[in-house]
Amino acid sequence: MDWSPGDSLGQKYQLIRLLGAGSAGSVWEGENTWVGRRVALKVLHSYLAHHAEIRARFLAEARASARIANPHVVDVFDLGETDDGTPFMVMELCEGETLGSILETRGAVGVGYACEILMQVCSALEAAHALGIVHRDLKPANVMVIHPTPETPFAKVLDFGIATGVHQGGKDPEERDVWGTVHYIAPEQAAGDAVDHRADIYAAGAILYELLAGRPPFEGAMSSIVLADVLTRPPKPLSRYAAGLPVGIEELVHRALAKDPEDRPHSVRALRAVLSSFVVQPERRARAAAPSVSQTEPPLPLVSRSKRLSLELVSDSSVPPPFPELPAAPSGPQSAPSSAVPGSAPGRRVDLTPASERRPPPLPPRRR
Questions:
Q1: Tens-digit pLDDT profile for the chain (368 aa)?
Q2: Which of 34, 62, 292, 312 has a Cα-to-Cα distance from 181 of 20 to 30 A?
């Protein structure tokens, strides 16, 4: 069955507009007509509705997403069926764009922005891994990015569950979709081996590589070429495509992309901890934006709180004056150079000759 805007799902959901479609289903913006709430509706393709394995995976994906209590995972509110038995899930509606769209339109992003996005993705993965859930199809198209402010991204991971799980002969359309995103697939998953949470760590490393380089770690005209490189060749150095990287970031990315799962960071929590060192925290951003005193200026003296010092000028005979008092110049003519002090009384002159060179005043005439 082909769906159109205005169609109803179940008894309380109405389709508004198509947001996207894949090999297994379509995603719509919709409305819960009972409460007037806008939602996202993921509907399985009708011709797959009675495929037992695909149907079971679709429902398991919804249940898995609903179990993960994390702000960086899209919430699933409800499950339902249409009149012909096609299952659908009801999710929160995110007003943003996918990370894949950001890469397509803008290319590489800055280190701080990329690491902040990946830290939030790792937070979602950590919550999933704690429940024994492995995403297995982490890619930029499955990361929704919302911007509460222009400089503050907020990521939400989509499509959790075993619906995009380990390959089992390539009969499942969802599995063919995984093979279609070979740029982010871990070597062990590409080889058909058992996978665990470290496959998600590899995918996170591939996404970070692309965010910084503007291209995935491996490229090729055919999926088979990319898969061969994923299995046998190391990625090209990240610094070849991204100049001026901070120390340590390239090593971290290539560790996450290691062929052997044992050589990758042991958990997404460990990966997130290292990523945090490359992110400028909000309070540090504020300090960087505020005007600061030059480091070359001497610091202001600290005053002990135990002593209340007055800022008034006081007379203290124990403290010598900073300059010797200058004697008043005689009223008669004199040969020593002198100059008028600005602001002094008119006609009064002060001798500025150093004391060592100053001539004594003339003696008064002797009376006879």
A1: 689 999 999 889 999 999 988 878 899 999 999 999 999 999 999 888 888 888 888 888 888 888 888 999 999 999 999 988 999 999 999 989 999 999 999 999 999 999 999 999 999 999 999 988 888 889 999 999 999 887 789 999 988 755 343 333 444 334 444 444 799 999 999 998 888 999 999 999 999 999 999 999 999 999 999 999 999 999 999 999 999 999 999 999 999 999 999 999 999 999 999 999 998 654 444 444 444 434 443 333 333 333 333 333 333 444 444 444 445 555 555 544 444 445 444 555 555 555 556 566 666 666 65
A2: 62
Count helices and strands (H / E) in the chain.
10, 11
Taking the alpha carbons at both ends of the chain, their separation in whole angstroms is 140
Range of the domain at 183: 97-288
Per 3-state DSSP, what percentage of the chain is helix, strand, and coil (rounded to 5)? 35, 15, 50
- Whole-model pTM: value is 0.71
Q: Which residues are catalytic?
A: 137
Q: For residue 368, is it within any domain?
A: no
Number of independent structural domains in the chain? 2
The residue from 230, 256, 288 where one domain ends is 288
Domain match, 130 and 230 both: yes
CA angle (356, 359, 363) in 5-degree steps: 140
Is 74 found in the same domain as 171?
no
Q: What is the CATH number of the domain that holds 42?
A: 3.30.200.20
Same domain? 157 vs 52: no
Distance, CA of 232 to CA of 164 (rounded, Å): 24
